[in-house]
Amino acid sequence: MFHKIPQAIAERxxxxxxxxxxxxxxxxxxxxxxxxxxxxxxxxxxxxASEAPDGALVEIGTSAGYSTxxxxxxxxxxxxxxxxxxxxxxxxxxxxxxxxxxxxxxTVEQVHRDAREVLDGFADIAFCFLxxxxxxxxxCYELVVPMMVPGGILVADNVISHREILQPFLDRVEADxxxxxxxxxxxxxxxxCRKR
Length: 196
Prior knowledge:
- The protein is built from 7 helices and 7 strands.
């Protein structure tokens, strides 16, 4: 999957990596920055998504589509599709350009809404990547977990880098008998959950 990344995808990944790097250095405001995952986290979620059971693949928080590109690699390998949800107008437009340039329109379905307004419309979620504003993690988690298939996987980003904000959420997940969970020290910290 990672040894033969199609050229258009690899080029867009490099472009977004450089844009994200510059934004972090030049003082671009937090709201405008892409705030995307690093490549090692991309590989991690792609591997997990490629091994997910049958069912829907969902991403909450598209940004410019960088993490979606990694997940799309898993979809291309397993002949699946992913639905990615983004509320921000500018980031939605950037992601649309990402998927146009990479030819992934048939693999990626974009939803331009608040994820909390649409998640109850999903069923049989096999994989979910949650990388949105931290204050909505609880509500998104509670909408996704009941819709997950047994063995389904949920990954939440930034749980080490934003631990002080997310600790109550992490405590609730740890006590949740519906899932097994562990924090993986990759990237900025990934909460990995598997539906029992």
